[in-house]
Amino acid sequence: MTRYWVHDALVDAADATVSVLDHGLTVGDGVFETILVRHGTPFALSLHLQRLARSSAGLGIRPVEEVRVREAVDAVVRLSGVATDFSRLRITVTSGVGPFGSDRGDAEPTLIVTMTPAAPWPPTTTLATVRWTRNERSATAGLKTTSYAENAIALAEAKGRGASEAVLADSLGRLSECTGSNVFVVIDSEVLTPSLDTGCLAGVTRELVLSWGRDVVRMREAHLPYDVLRSADEVFITSSTRDVHPVVRIDDREVEAGPVTSLLSEVFVSRARAEVDP
Questions:
Q1: CA–CA separation, 167 vs 165, rounded Å?
Q2: In this predicted structure, what is the pLDDT of residue 73?
Q3: Is the pLDDT of residue 1 over 90?
Q4: How far apart are the first and last CA of the chain?
Q5: 212-244, pLDDT tens digit by residue?
Q6: Phi then psi dihedrals of residue 27, to 5 deg
Q7: This model's pTM is above 0.85
């Protein structure tokens, strides 16, 4: 029997429900984190909880005490009934039950922790450029919110064209991010990734790749034109479940899964094994 954490307790999956008036459902007023659980241990949990707190503060949702979130995560990992060799754990916090419309009520935030088995990604991946943009001036720019409709539309477009991810520009035509991952390009052996002011999410894996990768290659954040994807020597994306994922096709352009991406992937895997909570 699978069990999830809802509010303050671990409950059977069939009983894991929230109110139909919860603002996470009615207006998408919530934040979340997705964490890879490998061999029974959530990876980089502290970094994810720090970002969860930043996202909550950015939306103005009352924070859930970290000790309470950790209790819920521990209970789900140990007692959910889901195998933990390679699983996806999700922490969701909403502003709780509220009135119709966008005004919040005075309810306590809703805390939900779930976990499902995950399958490793294939060795390489593909991207599709799309016509929609990331609004870097949005009130939710850089926050990991549950309002993912824009991402769902873009991802569906990419999958309809045979790609696994959509990659977006910001409103100024600069490379920003993908729907669920960050993007990096390699030009003349230098690794570049969009600056956070393009509206991209400050990904946990992105942060670790920048930190760990600087020991072996030249890396920096930059403002990059969207069409850099047409000329970059190598391209890869990062996320909590993808790690460093080489891109071999963008639209109709074939891209090499090259040596710089391979090196960074090796570094990331090695450091992640040695530091499960960096």
A1: 7
A2: 98
A3: no
A4: 33
A5: 999 999 999 999 999 999 999 999 999 999 999
A6: -130, 10
A7: yes
